[in-house]
């Protein structure tokens, strides 16, 4: 099993969610996160004063899938989230050793 994690723009969440549902994803976890990458934050002007915003609000999306689905799922997320602008996000895949559904005790692939 693999955990596919994506950090994307909040504006892209609905598009990515719809693409994942069309792809057949049955569940996902979403978190609001803050951070920065190459863009290193940005400057905003409020009432004539400039403020540096170091951390930018992003969305963290996590989907647990079987090994053979990870690459295809990564492509779906990248295609749906891409705008071509700095800050579009990142996607990474990590191996998962064990998953257990708490309600039923099912484990591994049957728990996804």
TrEMBL record:
Transmembrane segments: none annotated. It comes from the Bacteria. SMART domains: P-II. The keyword Hydrolase does not apply. GO terms for molecular function: ATP binding; enzyme regulator activity. Keywords: Phosphoprotein. InterPro entries: N-reg_PII, N-reg_PII-like_a/b, N-reg_PII/ATP_PRibTrfase_C, N-reg_PII_CS. The modification O-UMP-tyrosine is found at residue 51. The keyword Phosphoprotein applies. One of its GO terms (cellular component) is cytosol. One of its GO terms (biological process) is regulation of nitrogen utilization. Belongs to the P(II) protein family. PANTHER family: NITROGEN REGULATORY PROTEIN P-II, NITROGEN REGULATORY PROTEIN P-II HOMOLOG. This is Nitrogen regulatory protein P-II family. The lineage of its organism: Bacteria, Bacillati, Actinomycetota, Actinomycetes, Propionibacteriales.
């Amino acid at each position: 099993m693999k955990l596919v994690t994506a950090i994307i723009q909040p504006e892209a969440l609905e598009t990515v969610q719809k693409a994942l549902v069309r792809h057949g994803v049955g569940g996902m976890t979403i978190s609001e996160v803050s951070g920065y990458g190459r863009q290193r934050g940005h400057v905003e002007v409020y009432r004539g004063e400039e403020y540096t915003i170091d951390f930018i609000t992003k969305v963290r999306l996590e989907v647990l899938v079987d090994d053979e689905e990870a690459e295809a799922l990564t492509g779906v997320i990248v295609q749906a989230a891409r705008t071509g602008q700095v800050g579009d996000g990142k996607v990474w895949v990590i191996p998962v050793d064990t998953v257990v559904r708490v309600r039923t005790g099912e484990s591994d692939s049957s728990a996804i």
